[in-house]
Amino acid sequence: MKILVCVKQVPEQDARLRIAGDESWIVEDGLSFAISECDRYGVEAALRLKEAGEAEVVVLSLGGERASKGIKEALAMGCDRAIHVNSDALQTADAITIAKVLAAAARDEAADLIICGQQSDDLSYNAVGPALAQFLDMRHVQIALELEMAGDAAIKVSHELDNNLIETVELQLPAVIGVQSGINDVRYASLKGIMQAGAKPQTKTTLEELGLDDAAVAPKLKIEKVGFPVRTSQAEMLEGDAKEVATQLVQKLINDAKVL
Amino acid sequence: MSKNILVIAESREGAIKGITKEAVGAAVQLASQLGGEVHTMLLGDAELATELAACGGAKVLQAAGDALAAYTPEAWTAAVSSAIEAGDYALVVTGHSYQAIDFFPRLAAAYDAPLVPDVTAVTIEDGGLVFTRKVMNGKLDARTVPVVEGVIFASLQQGAFPVQEATSTATVEEFAVDLAGVSVRKVIEVREAEKGDVDLSAADIIVAGGRGVGDKDKFGVVFDFAEALGAAVGASRPPCDSEWVEHERQIGSSGQVVAPKLYFALGISGAIQHLVGMRGSQCIVAVNKDPNAAIFQEASYGIVGDLHEVVPALLEAVKEARG
Question: Tell me, what's the ipTM?
């Protein structure tokens, strides 16, 4: 059994963002990057399946040099080896284009199971897993909550649907699973894991080596401009030290809003 | 170039969902600017065709059959593909629901076409579609444009497009789809998510904490403040994921939907999945360190600051005011 788990490096969630001068994206210099939250749960899910049976877990990441940090962390957590599609070009590419690249990298691996986070913290397309499944002609489940092998060749997955419904499906492998955050307790890398990570095999590849020419990976969407939302609501911002704002707020809630 | 728009409908408990009505309204406005028609598509649910027709547009494509009795991504992808082949659409739209998240990317990938998920605004500029969507956990608006020819797939954020009064009633047409060759994933069961013992819907005041609270121990300040107010305690997803509080306290699209008189959002950034669960509150107070947090867009009162300084002061102020 071979499990491929996809991770993306994204700015840490509480990072203070600044808009670049040309407004085309944020200023990335000075930001800390980390594995996107749902992807971390994906790594943990893959490692748990490995521990419940027998599997090789391969971490796959698309990104520039900074993707190495996430790869190293995933290896330290217990992944067996890594594939790094080294490209800076697709950091803000659309989900279909990203899925196409991941599919090209995954195809030769012939993994039984591919696990992704259901969305990334940066672009939040919620789309890479199902799109990847389409490109690889596999079944998929998106927003998975529970994963459990059903024999050697199938997996049982519960996932969120609308209206607070949870559906359990059984998929024949190979399949792609997009996991939700919060589905397990993500482990920290042990000291031993960190020591061993450096010695684990890492394959670096490029778009070109994957047979993807410029036309194949030409993004389908362009982010023309980013900006902080224009405040449309009537929010009254209270200013002062903690005691002052607290007193003001309580008076307003009692006298103006009449909700206290 | 095609100018028509196809809207994929969704239902809930025997009625067309609000998110679908919003999408039809948005599509009708766009189509009138493009000079095209809106077709809506109903999968399964034949009895809802009249209700969908009344939402507007020119045609309802009503697709029925055993394979569409319940949602599967395979049958939905195949049926919508048939409609796209039979028609000629510039844009295929649906609400950004969990169902859309499950099957829309497959459909867009099958067409190797642009997919614009979770859209908050659409305009037409120089004849082309311009989308706005949130990035970086809802903190930024990104103006996003398709840069390739052909059909575009877009899912619209719940609540971002107001339901429009229909200006026309669509004609219902049966749309035959051949799904005989489509094999679908095997469904074992569908169940309701466990609700637990915490019912927040009856509370007049809710104090909710988010990632910004910091950790499980620090969440005590949320409980203390709630107790002083006689309020219920809620949370956004991260504290539930990290098990600082019980999952049943989660407010949002995968938790409870609440509309109290007064809602405190403490250290909650304001991801859309949370906002849809509390937006209906009468008065919203947001406390967050980040002045750009999306939650301030929804708030009646906002305080930029460390909740661990502000909340104890609020607790004192409440006690004082109440004598």
Answer: 0.94
